[in-house]
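**Tokenised fold:**
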Amino acid sequence: MALKRLKLIKWALVSTLSPLSQVFQLRAHMYQARSLFAADSSGLSDPFARVFFSTHSQVTEVLSETLCPTWDQLLVFDDVELFGEASELRDDPPIIVVELYDQDTVGKAEFIGRTFAKPTIKMCEEHYGPPRFPPQLEYYQIYRGNCTAGELLAAFELLQVQDIFNPPTLKFSSLLTIFPHLLNCCVSLVQVLFWGLRDLKRINLAQVDRPRVDIECAGRGVQSALIQNYKKNPNFSTLVKWFEVDLPENELLHPPLNIRVVDCRAFGRYILVGSHAVTSLRRFIYSAPDKTSNNWATAGADTDSFLIARSEYANFEDWLHTFNLYRGKAGDDDEHALDDDRIVGRFKATDLHPADINGKADPYVVIKLGKSEVKDKENYISKQLNPVFGKSFDIEATFPMESMLTVSVYDWDLVGTDDLIGETKIDLENRFYSKYRATCGISSNYSVHGYNVWRDPLKPSQILTKLCKDGKIDGPHYGPGGKVKVASRIFLGPTEIEDENGTVTEEHLALNVLNHWEEIPRVGCKLVPEHVETRPLLNVDKPGIEQGRIEMWVDMFPMDMPAPGPAIDISPRKPKSFELRVVIWNTDDVILEDDAFMTGEKMSDIYVRGWLKGQQEDKQDTDVHYHSLTGEGNFNWRFVYPFDYLMAEEKIVISKKESMFSWDETEYKIPPRLTLQVWDADHFSADDFLGAIELDLNRFPRGAKTAKQCSLNMIRNEHELPTISIFKQKRVKGWWPFVARDENDEMELTGKVEAELHLVTAEEAEKSPVGLGRNEPDPLEKPNRPDTSLMWFLSPLKSIRYFIWHNYRWLILKALGLILLLLMLGLFLYSVPGYLVKKMLGA
């Protein structure tokens, strides 16, 4: 009996220590998924979802060949036992894991992606009703590793069960009955304009010949007309088709729009060419302002506010949308490429990805349009990551066969094939038919002469008349006083400007209306201005990684219109050749570094060195002023530096080989800076650096008139002092300080230099040449330097002069003055007694 009581006590103790157990029912409302990972070679999947919760799991049904499955299925998990306090479970519910798989006929299912969710918990004492129940459907992001693999629209609720033998039941399993708001649908008319197919790839080495487009949404759909010969004409014969579909009023619940392109083969066979899933219908929703209007094309022109624009002009998809078709199994490392969000024109490239082992590239441009290809390989730019191509290409094209312009940048290689750096593609057809008039940018000014001459074959007045006619609006009506009326708007502008024939023109007034065309009611929009924009360069081998940018623009002119004006000259600017002549006249107050061997006096053997930045190999030195005891040096020495200069960029252009193994020269652009240094020459050791000054030839402080006025403030307060440019002043002379850093890294004055800078063009230099140093032609006079020989026995008086007089001249002068005063006082004292005696004797 005692043993039995002990067992009961032990059982009771264990029962009190075990965690609390709660029983729940999980309801997983699986509505649909969209933009799933393509797991089959057809570019589609046969998806199903598996839901894991605690120790339970269930699966949805399998839907065949779709990337946007709609299951509309409820999964119920009964008798789910969870451990913990009820309050803890409510505040922090367990995680639900949802995995999506692709069902294969042979082999096991293939993993598509995974997502996590938290359910909405209802305890047994709570009421099941709004606002928390039933829970709202939400989108959950599906991940496949680090990449996104789609979205899942679902809702999860966890209900506590009070009586495990009588759990809550549902009468219906369809989400449309559980969520009544899903039943709020409206009949929508889906109108489709089938324009054409472009750039279809081969299928198993066979070309696509008779393609057709199938469009499906919520179980309803439409088929396009069959293209009988894709190679000859890739456009559809029948353009507009439509079908009706029931769409929920809640845009979040809209089904996807599936686009499939098939190739119709012999014997009724259909081969999938590619597919595309439009996951959001928001940008295509349009409510007609007039129910009686049946002009579908006119209504579509006003849908801009619903477009998800990728640029200011919605990528010129204002009336046609381009959908990329995909076929084949997606890779795990596939990433979304960057959007080509601008339509621009060719001019130069920036920040190119290095393609050679030296960290540079030798880029050139390749233009491809249909079967036409232009390679500018012979004009490659050596070792540049920011090349300026400055090229203009004229190519004839025929729509719709030749509508995709590809601009590629390749790296030139001496041996082997050239490497693709990146490319960008431009849909010319979208530009040509766009209402934004993207064929030729509208200039801000109308000029008939000069570098910015009007190049459109139509004048502004002709363009304005055509726009008014196409938009069916009244105008233009030109009136006196520079007025023009278009529709209900009146614009003002200049009219007193005469054209090339000497008559008053209204082109400037019409151009003002074009630049404000967006103010016109109903049909107004911002017309594409004259522009240079930037497009990213992409490489299919490096998806999602920008390989640089290219600046460019494209003009299109129909062949049945008058020929356009001459193309704008955008060739790279050519540098202008100059010659800088620097005359070093004198130095002063140069610090003394050496000690005289005989006397120990401070002295320096001074010379000046100079060069232009980037041309260090062309350093030039003056001769040496030996044994300077005062820091003064006399040179009368000329430096001559020829160089090429770009006025617009304010840079010196230097072309030279990087090394002896380089195949060709590399171009460098360097700021024009003149460096002058003062040195102390030594016979048996390295020369000593004393100081330097660097002058930016575009802006440097004006030289002082005298050596005394030259100070360190000319360097310290350089930004506050007025500056000059040698390219404007041409000739300047003055004193500038030499500076150096001391032990405390502070700037100190180490000397002064009197120099003259003279800039001449290459033509002027050829007409009036000068020699280096003091050489012919136009030689400089030899400076009058003092003889500072240290041989006492050869010239003792000169040595006394430079060693004694220089250091003790004030003391000597004072001593001489004092001696003179003493002599005068002695003579006075000597002559005073005799003078007094003579006065007394009356002599």
Notes: The first strand starts at residue 21 and ends at 34. The CA atoms of residues 8 and 698 lie 101 Å apart. The mean pLDDT is 82. Residues 796-841 form the longest helix (46 residues).
